[in-house]
Design goal:
With about 425 residues, the protein is of the alpha/beta class. It folds into two domains: about 160 residues, Rossmann fold, CATH 3.40.50; about 210 residues, Rossmann fold (3-Layer(aba) Sandwich). Helix content is about 45%, strand content about 15%. It contains 15 helices and 14 strands. The strands form four sheets. A six-stranded mixed β-sheet has the order 3-4-14-9-10-13, with helices on both faces. A four-stranded parallel β-sheet has the order 7-6-5-8, sandwiched between helices. Strands 1-2 form a two-stranded antiparallel sheet. The protein is globular, with a radius of gyration of 21 Å. Pyridoxal-5'-phosphate binds next to helix 10 and helix 13.
């Protein structure tokens, strides 16, 4: 144990709260509100009620009989976070923070988003609770993720394109912190994963622990014993922390976190902080963890076929669990992800998100080595409908291309026609 690990918000050497002086008071208020909520059983009951009412909880644990037969080893169960409102586990976090914001009496929320999924989830929450909402997004990401930007705006959020730096997620994070400093009296920053300064990693992990609580009792009911292993993909780490918490105290359960192997962890196109060789300890974005960076501490560009796993840092809690050996880290490549996705669709009629499909890859490697007395759980963090552009492109589907080109032509023609009418 290092000296720091006795302090709040540290996990071994990782974590902490590296924040500007002006935000100390805001963080003190947030810590107090969070700790009060956590000590108050009625808060959790209200949260569970809300998620049951608004987001299909408890989500099912589906026995994947066809996949189990296909591999002939362990019984494969899938935790269906895809059935949440907005299609992923992100709803758990934003709705939990929404309840807390209501308690704190604040009226405005801000968030940063890369691929746009957290932005959409935050915008739905803000609409539901009646909060004003501003979403910061790199200009590049605004251009690439038009469908999500469209929905955020329709849901009443203001989307601000960030033009600094690389015009992507890390620049959006800086801009969100700047906004918070300027408007901390009435504003809460809804951080999207189990990263950032304390109390965010601990607080987001708490809201996501609802996944593990449910999965634990569901597997006991359906399988009659603890699972041999639990698999989750790891971007920032929130869906993994969510399901792992149901099993961390069961030493016989192998907890497996799967990172984005991209084009391969020996290339420079991946986002593997724990399995790759390009990560080092660093402090950025308000916390200390393993960041993908070069020798000078410059953050590296990351790559994954799954936008939600494309992130330079990793949860300080997971970094600690990796160090201690409690969580085993693996990586899945883009090609392996596409193959696992195809097999799952054809076998079970289930479409995992590209992020979630990373967990399926490793589960499929391990399942054949086990036997029918073993059960494994794959946390399916989200549904794949959102990925239609990427998946159709990866499958090189000719009819899809014709469809996109046709749509483009339609818009071009109607724009030309209305231009002519004006001339
Ligand atoms: C955002 C997202 C992730 C990655 O985030 P974590 O914090 O690592 O869970 C994974 N899966 C889906 C479907 C997502 O939308």
């Amino acid at each position: 144990m290092t000296e720091n690990s006795a302090q709040k918000g540290y996990y071994g050497p990782w974590g902490g709260a590296f924040i500007p002086e002006v935000l100390h008071q805001t963080f003190a208020e947030l810590n107090l509100a969070y700790e009060k909520a956590r000590a108050d059983e009625s808060f959790w009951q209200e949260y569970v009620r809300l998620m049951g009412n608004y987001s299909c909880r408890p989500t099912p644990l589906t026995y994947a009989e066809n996949l189990s037969n296909h591999f002939g080893g362990a019984r494969i169960f899938i935790k269906r976070e895809d059935l949440n409102h907005t299609g992923a586990h992100k709803a758990n976090n934003v709705m939990g923070q929404g309840l807390l914001v209501k308690r704190m009496g604040k009226k405005r929320v801000i968030a940063e988003t890369g691929a746009g999924q957290h932005g959409v989830a935050t915008a739905t929450m803000a609409a539901r609770f009646g909060f004003a909402c501003t979403i910061y997004m790199g200009e590049e990401d605004v251009a690439r993720q038009r469908p999500n930007v469209f929905w955020m705006e329709q849901l009443g959020a203001k989307v601000v394109p960030v033009t600094d730096g690389s015009k992507t997620l890390k620049d959006a994070i800086n801009e969100a912190f700047r906004d918070w400093v300027a408007r901390m009296d009435d504003t809460h920053y809804v951080l999207g994963t189990v990263c950032g300064p304390h109390p965010f990693p601990e607080m987001v992990a708490w809201f996501q622990s609802i996944i593990g609580q449910e999965a634990r009792s569901q597997i006991l009911e359906q399988h009659g014993a603890m699972p041999a292993a639990v698999y989750a993909c790891v971007g920032g780490g929130s869906n993994a922390m969510g399901i792992f918490q149901g099993f961390t105290n069961e030493s016989g359960v192998d907890l497996v976190g799967v990172e984005a192997g991209g084009k391969g962890i020996h290339t420079d196109q991946h986002a593997s902080r724990m399995t790759g060789s390009r990560a080092a300890a660093g402090v950025a974005q308000g916390y200390k963890t393993m960041f993908l960076q070069d020798e000078d501490g410059q953050m590296l560009d990351t790559h994954s076929i799954a936008a939600g796993l494309d992130y330079v840092g990793i949860s300080p809690i997971l970094a600690r669990l990796g160090d201690s050996g409690r969580v085993r880290f693996e990586a899945a490549t883009d090609d392996e992800v596409i193959a696992a996705l195809q097999l799952t669709m054809r076998s079970e009629g289930i479409i995992p998100a590209l992020e979630s499909a990373h967990a399926f890859v490793q589960a499929f490697k391990d399942a054949p080595k086990m036997n029918r007395h073993d059960a494994i759980i794959i946390n399916m963090s989200g549904r794949g409908d959102k990925d239609i552009f990427t998946i159709a492109h990866a499958f090189d589907d000719p009819s899809w291309k014709r469809f996109i080109i046709g749509r483009g032509d339609e818009y071009r023609n109607s724009m030309l026609a209305s231009q002519k009418a004006k001339d």
